[in-house]
Amino acid sequence: MKRVLVLNGPNLGRLGTREPEIYGTASLADLTNLLTADAPDWHIDVRQSDSEPELMGWLHEATDAKTPVIINPAAFTHYSYALRDAVAMLSGAGIPVIEVHISNPHAREEFRRDSVISPVATGVIAGFGFESYRLALRYLITLDN
Ligand code: DQA
């Protein structure tokens, strides 16, 4: 079975109740259901952590297993060089890693306009709510066909 790791950074475990005017009212469980319905023959492994080392461990795991990754690094997007280096190992090994955001960070506060992850990601999709993740998955499915 084809696999994809869908990694979510800090505070995204609160989706559903966190600033619903920005992030909507759906939860990570809803996201898992959506993605699973989109790709029933894929193993969609949705994970969330508030911890930088845990996210890095998962990126290392994906690098070793050559598993494509969809990642919403959340606030780590804007300052985590450690996460960036882990993403660079994946993309550098030719494994697709797609950065996604629910909101459009460019249309928000100034500090959100910079992503230290984007330069080493395979691609970036932002601003479409959960559709950002679905579009990223669609790309991986297209690559596979
Ligand atoms: C986010 C945007 C980030 O700036 C923010 O820190 C998040 C969520 C998004 O999905 O829109 O936590 O990554």
Helix percent band:
25-40%
CATH superfamily: Dehydroquinase, class II
Rounded to the nearest angstrom, the distance between the terminal CA atoms is 14 Å
Low-confidence stretches: none
Counting DSSP E segments of at least 2 residues, the number of strands comes to 5
Enumerate the distinct ligands: 1,3,4-trihydroxy-5-OXO-cyclohexanecarboxylic acid
Name the overall outline. globular
SS field, number of helical segments? 5
Largest sheet: 5 strands, parallel
CATH topology: Rossmann fold
Helix-strand topology string:
EHHEHEHEEH
Query: From the 3D coordinates, which CATH architecture would you assign?
Result: 3-Layer(aba) Sandwich
Molecular structure report:
By secondary structure, the protein is of the alpha/beta class. The protein has one domain: Dehydroquinase, class II (Rossmann fold, 3-Layer(aba) Sandwich). The chain is built from 5 helices and 5 strands. The chain has helices at 20-23, 28-38, 52-65, 81-92, 131-144, and strands at 2-8, 42-48, 69-72, 97-101, 123-126. It has a 5-stranded parallel sheet, sandwiched between helices. Bound molecules: 1,3,4-trihydroxy-5-OXO-cyclohexanecarboxylic acid.
